[in-house]
Amino acid sequence: MTRQDPEGFGPRAGADWAVPALLPRLPGLDHTFTLLRQGYHFIGRNCDAMHVDGFRARLMGREAVCLRGPEAGRLLYGSDVVTRQGAMPATVLRLLQDKGSVQQLEGEEHRARKAMFIRLVMDPARVDALVRGFEAAWRAQLRPGTEISILHLANAALTRAVCHWAGLYPSEARLRQLTRVLFAMSDRTGHFSPSTLVTLMQRRRVERWLRQQAAAARAGGNAPEGSALAVMAAELPPEVAAVEILNILRPVVAVGRYIAFSAKALHEHPIWCGLFHSGNEDYITDFCEEVRRISPFFPFTAAVATRDVEWQGATIAAGTRILFDIYGTNNDARNFPLPHKFRPERMLDWKVEDPAFVPQGAGAVATTHRCPGEAMTLALMASAVRMLCNEMSYELPPQDLSVAMNRVPAQPASGVRIRVQRID
To answer: Which of the 8 DSSP states describes residue 53?
Structure first.
């Protein structure tokens, strides 16, 4: 059955979506270990096996509904019958967002807070300023004859750039610490171990420092006019400003994973680096968008139904946790023929709000929980690709570039190590 959405938020024309009268249930008492074992493939493979786009499971002892596809994106990002509150495990919430942050707000309160983020992170001049800082920090780390991991190179450059962009000027020692902690916040979300507790404590120390910075700026300190620190300190209490500044710093540093995946793609598909090196940079954004589509970054997002919800003829009861399969939606062959083939010629574009292309969420940025940072993400990725292709010569020593799909978040195993030969 082909579904068409009059609002343009349904599957692309020709997509054949399964419409179950009831959501089937996975066999077994609890499926938490299956999810951990299958990782990014958990929802998609089970949907494919049952020929549906949604099923019921039990995760961490709690009823859950797992969904994929544009209709599921519309439910989690375009409706008022779900909430982000109570959807994430406590450790994931504390590592990524924390209570009272923009992602935990709903309704008018969310829209007002989101508007502040949009002013700060989507303004083209601000994006350009961040990119310039990133490029300077990247170049400063490179020396001919040295070997370095692209992931570590990007993390350090992004941390320095986004701190200065936000109006923060930490010491070199604190910058090194921030690089480790900001990376670890996302790196520890897919599992629970003693290192998770260590990262939670480290996050608290970073928050205390940011509260001090926000309080000083609010009291008339010397925060640069118009910076994220100045704006948030003026509009929010220091403890909330600290959380929201962190919700800019951490995601920007997380772009380092996309940059590592971009370096891996350049190595595996050298024709693109040759194209960019010859001066034809028209397709760099298309290249980066395809990296975002095909790379395992966010596996899924979660919400809780606030009342009984009808979805494709099935009822999802109020209070049920709903998981939306981001990775599976981006790699669905019904919308992306040969989805595991790397094809920048698909010419994807986050600004189109294509409901099948949802690497950082679905729907309209201003009114949903979609991430407002995609403009920054693409600009930083494109900058890194440009520098790799045009400003340096390097080789990849023997290494493991495999990606474990049951590691959340995923990354190339080696971080993509390069041996710098020449700085052009």
So the answer is: S
Cis before 409? omega within 30: yes
Count of H-run helices and E-run strands, the chain: 15, 10
Q: In what order do the strands lie in the sheet with 62-67?
A: 54-59, 62-67, 321-325, 300-305, 82-83
Confirm if 54 and 23 have CB atoms less than 8 A apart.
Answer: yes
Q: Where are the domains of the chain?
A: 32-423
pLDDT value of residue 1:
26
Q: Please tell me the distance from the alpha carbon of residue 383 to that of residue 297, in angstroms, as a whole number.
A: 19
Taking 3-state DSSP, the helix, strand and coil percentages for the chain, each rounded to the nearest 5, stand at: 50, 10, 35
In this predicted structure, what is the pLDDT of residue 100?
Answer: 66
Q: Which two tokens stand for residue 304?
A: 């809780």
pLDDT at 165: 98
- The one-letter amino acid code at 191 reads H
What does each C-alpha distance from 35 to 55, 59, 374, 410 come to in angstroms?
A: 13, 8, 28, 14
Whole-angstrom Cα distance, residue 198 to residue 214?
24
Neighbours of 322 (CB within 10 A): 24
* Interatomic CA distance for residues 100 and 339, integer angstroms: 38
What's the pLDDT score for residue 39?
Answer: 94
Neighbours of 315 (CB within 10 A): 13
Count of CA atoms in the C-beta half-sphere (13 A) of 96: 20
Give the distance from CA 179 to its chain's centroid.
Answer: 17
Tell me the whole-structure pTM to 2 decimals. 0.92
Q: What's the confidence (pLDDT) of residue 305?
A: 94
| Cα gap 248→166, rounded to integer Å | 9
Distance CA 380, CA 133 (A): 10
pLDDT at position 160 is: 98
In the prediction, which pLDDT does 5 show? 34
Count the Cβ atoms, other than its own, within 10 Å of residue 118: 14
CATH superfamily of 32-423: Cytochrome P450 (1.10.630.10)
pLDDT at 63: 92
Residue segments in the chain with a per-residue pLDDT below the cut of 50: 1-15, 17, 19
Closest by alpha carbon to 53, among 33, 34, 36, 73? 73
What SS3 state is found at 417?
Answer: strand
The pLDDT tens digits for 245-265 are 999 999 999 999 999 999 999
List, in order, residues 6 or more apart from 149 with CB less than 8 Å away.
260, 414, 415, 416, 417, 418
Q: Are 371 and 77 in contact (CB under 8 A)?
A: no
58 has which bridge partners?
63
Nearest to 207 by CA among 256, 156, 249: 249
